[in-house]
Amino acid sequence: MAFVIIAAVIVVGTVLFNLVTPWWFTPLASNWGSLDQTIIISLWITGIAFVLVSAFILYCVVKFRYSEDRRSSYEPENQKLELQLTVITTIGVIILLAPGLVAWQSYINLPENGLQVEGVGQQWTWSFRFPGEDGVYGNTSGSLFSSKNTFGLDPNDPKGQDDILIRDRQVHLPVNQPAVFQLRSKDVLHDFYIPQFRAKIDMVPGQVTKLWFEPTLEGEYEIVCAEYCGIAHYNMRGVAIVNSVPDFQFWLDQQQTFGEFQQQAASSSGGVTDKDGELIARTKGCIACHSIDGKPGIGPSWKGIAGEDRVLVGGGSVIANDLYLKRSITNPNDEVVLGYAPMMPPYPLSEEELDAIVEYINSLGE
Ligand code: CUA
């Protein structure tokens, strides 16, 4: 009898918990209310089945509990009962599956008039591209990726010249307009996910995946990576800022095109500055592990380390001068600072890029 009471308390408690839980969906900010409804229908169907099956089990435990003089009856076939169970189960499964198929149908049908945006994922940051005035993305190739060409754009493709490049983890979107995202990964499997929009899809290296949504509320929404992609996965975050259409257009008009970036690079004097280093640190994803404000992270913060005495794992110490900082980027696991694990992948950057990053680290204070 104790078992029946405890089990009944667990069943009732489970139902109550689901009815009053504070851990519910974040407020919806897109057109995908149908996905929420699908989940809620599934919860009700499985919840009802859970209560009925549990109640039946507890009933049987009480009704058929052991008694010495009772004999079991043998009834191998009961066609009526089998038919009833088959019909009920079939109806339940149809109600579970059908709403999902309806929602999925509109989820994979991209609107033709949608705003085209590309999201690029890499360990452990995001960047974005708009196709520009011609409305067509320029060709890209994995072999063209470099720290000057972080999108791998083909410089000889005329369609790419007007592509607008957002070399940042923040992107703006217009409210009440469908946005069609095409998604690429530079390295490993990631997953593009904005919880308040409900929209979510994997980013597969070597492939382009697509999804769409229509933001319905202005505001800032976190873009998260929803696929474990290495040590700083938890910190692979971006921001989608939903603006009114004029505000969005104002922002977009201020962004630079691939053509403008190329001109700038060609006319620059060749010297590097801390600003170049900051851009490299952002586009390479360094700041997912190394904070620039002294906050602890997976790796040491860059703030104030330039010129410092660093105690190493295994004894000894080293002055964090320019040479040491460069060695720590190209051969990060040779001289690891005490308190950190040897887990950073080597970054084979050019001498010019190394100069720029060191310049940036130095600018963060000694
Ligand atoms: Cu990218 Cu997890």
Order of helices and strands: HHHEEEEEEEEEEHHHEEHH
> Reading side by side through the largest sheet, how are the strands ordered?
3-2-1-5-8
User: What amount of the residues lies in strands?
Assistant: 15-25%
Radius of gyration: 28 Å
Biggest beta-sheet profile: 5 strands, mixed
As a percent range, the share of helical residues equals 25-40%
What ligands can be seen in this structure?
A: dinuclear copper ion
Q: Can you tell me the overall shape?
A: extended
Uncertain segments are none
Number of strands: 12
Mean pLDDT: 89
For the termini, the CA-CA separation is 71 Å
Tell me the quaternary state. single chain
Structural class of the helices, strands and pairings? alpha+beta
Per DSSP, the total helix count is 8
For this entry, give a set of tags.
366 residues; alpha+beta; five-stranded mixed β-sheet; 12 strands
